[in-house]
Sequence to fold (223 residues):
Amino acid sequence: MKPNEIYAELNHLLLEPGVQELYQTVEAAFKAQDAIAHNWEHVRRDIVNSVEIGLQEGADMGIVIPAIILHDIGYVTHPHEPEQHPINGSRECCRFLDAWTPEQRTLISSCILKHKGKFPGFEHSEPETLEEKVVCDADQVDKFGWIGFIQVVKVFVEHGTKGHDLYKTFPGMAGALTRRKSIMLYTETGKHLAAKRREPDFMDISEKLTRELYLYEEWKEPF
Ligand SMILES: [Fe+2]
Ligand SMILES: [Fe+2]
Fold:
């Protein structure tokens, strides 16, 4: 889809009853938190991805749009439990969804729970419905390309400053870059969008980073 087609479809969807209010409420919540990586800038990119993927896959956008707006709300409600954010988000989302039916809330909550797919450390359960797959892919596409590379660095800063030791070091970063190869995409459109973002080569960066670090990592203090 061309950018103008995406914008027209997206803006039409955002003017649906309840959606505009949800968008603005969640935007304000993210901006009040002011996270480095899992911020409104990231959610906004995922919303755009979800329109391109969801429309081309024929998904129910009445579920996809609220789900993608809320997919990382767990970071806002429980900022010190990043690994639990799909679970926390799936529990907390309903209080933002007064304008949706109980059945719709269940479907949206399930999209949030499964939005990490098979990403290492988050194997809660894989997306099954088309809407769950679209929400997952819209989020995973943000991990590819130059945006994806910079986002990895930003995630390390975000988690590192919260005291997660793995995220504070260069070897930790080199290891994290290799995790990209285990990302599972579930829709043809998601696979296509990710394939367009071939650069940079995360494995190559990881190897070169590890090589540069060798001198410093092999040194042991004599005491
Ligand atoms: Fe997430
Ligand atoms: Fe996300």
Q: What stands out?
A: Residues 174 and 210 are 6 Å apart (CA to CA).
